[in-house]
Design brief:
Belongs to the glycosyltransferase 2 family. The protein is α/β, with parallel strands linked by helices. The protein has 8 helices and 9 strands. It has one domain: Spore Coat Polysaccharide Biosynthesis Protein SpsA, Chain A. Helix 1 packs parallel to helix 2, helix 5 runs parallel beside helix 8 and helix 7 runs parallel beside helix 8. The radius of gyration is 17 Å and the shape is globular.
Length: 243
């Protein structure tokens, strides 16, 4: 996994951050990790700084002034990665809902199968979710079906946040034109990749709910996704969606 960067946004993840960093970097000895921390009051960034002694040039930290949304954290990470010529750029959560062992599968989809974007998919082969209450499983599954219906994308897990991009695809975006900051960001990036006719491959993975720390999901994030997708699709039909 040469030329690979795994971007992990954090906010109050002191219970997970050392474990996830070591799980990635001790398994993939050529990969790098970038933590984008939104000024976590629990000391997450300080833990990462301590770990940098162990991992030298492989563990990087970008500290932002405030909690400013998942989407802007990833955009910050994308720009940082492109400036440093990484070829394979991952999105990954800090809470082990995304299994580090699956990074290799997403990398292979891009490196060996020629995907521009590979997606760790919960729904491409049934429903592969562990430890979620049924209400949340249904919400997530129906949301993905809703987005697929509106956008017409042939993607089963339209809200997935475990992904690998080729740098060549990210360079085709105007990253300053990405509008959404919550989980709708994940849908926007997939939809714009689809409009760019990128090769998108879904890789089946098992999603496991966090066992440590607190979820960042909120009703505002859900509302942004539901209403934002309609606006985005409407703009695309009018030829006014900026990519």
């Amino acid at each position: 996994m040469k030329d690979t960067l795994v971007i992990i946004p954090t906010y109050n993840e002191r219970e997970n951050v050392e474990l996830i960093v070591r799980a990635v970097l001790d398994t993939y000895l050529e990969a790098h990790v970038l933590i984008v921390d939104d000024n976590s009051p629990d000391g997450t960034a300080q833990i990462v700084e301590g770990l940098q002694v162990d991992y030298e040039a492989r563990l990087h930290l970008e500290k932002r002034a405030k909690k400013d949304g998942l989407g802007t954290a990833y955009i910050h990470g994308f720009k940082w990665a492109l400036q440093r010529s990484y070829e394979y750029i991952f999105e990954m959560d800090a809470d082990f809902s995304h299994d580090p062992a699956d990074l290799e599968l997403l990398h292979e989809a891009c490196h060996d199968l020629g995907a521009d974007l590979s997606i760790g998919s919960r729904y491409v082969q049934g429903v592969n979710v562990v430890n979620w209450p049924m209400s949340r499983v249904l919400l997530s599954y129906v949301a993905s079906k809703y987005v697929r219906l509106i956008t017409r994308m042939e993607i089963h897990d339209t809200t997935a946040g475990f992904k690998c991009y080729r740098a060549s695809l990210l360079k085709r975006f105007d990253l300053d034109k990405i509008k959404f900051v919550g989980y709708a960001f994940q849908i926007e990036m997939k939809f714009k990749s689809y409009l760019l006719e990128a090769k998108i491959v879904e890789v089946p993975v098992i999603f496991t709910d966090r066992s440590r720390g607190v979820s960042k999901m909120s009703t505002g994030i859900i509302h942004e996704a539901v209403t934002g997708i309609l606006r985005m699709k409407f703009k695309s039909l009018l030829g006014k969606l900026e990519i």
